[in-house]
Amino acid sequence: QVCAQLCRRPCYCPWVPPRCPRGSPLVLDGCGCCKICARRLGEPCDFLHVCDQSQGLVCDYSSASAGTGATCNFEDDEESCEVNGRVYRDGEVFQPSCKIQCQCLDGGFNCVPLCQEDVRLPTPDCPHPRRVEIPGKCCPEWICEAQDQHLLRDARAVSPLLPYPCQEWGTEWSACSATCGVGFATRVSNQNRYCRLETQRRLCMLRPCPALPAAFPA
Question: Where would you say this protein principally sits, based on its record (predicted)?
């Protein structure tokens, strides 16, 4: 009945086919008569203006009852996810940028960073660390200013006194890294000759490790 109402025979099509936007192929309309541009994801559609089936799109009439009209959508849209205007299928792995990798799962997505999100504290060797973008590399890298290095080298040579009083500050020592035998504990403190925050380590031993049986040589 729809064909009888909307489709005219014979076909009357323009001589020149339409120029389609990027990502929209030329397809036959719903009557199988004239070449039209396939509708893309989220675009309005109807019986004549069909969706791009090569992308798995169908004309979704579920929103038509709300007065917004039918739109092109995935058949299993509940299991897909949309990121930055692009739709990914369930289970698909993608990278919105070179710094993160994501996977579409049950309508949502989980992402993990590909760059180390480390924190570098000032040290005597690098009093002013700074992360910078390196041309040709995705992840930023830590650098130490060359000027700071020269100043530090000069300071070591003359060993000047600090021009201001140093208010000592430090965290508690962490738990020993080993449950038996020699390990190390760490803390952050400015208790050094330059009064700069740095990570400090010291050896620790909670208890000696039990001796191995004679059958198992060390």
Answer: secreted
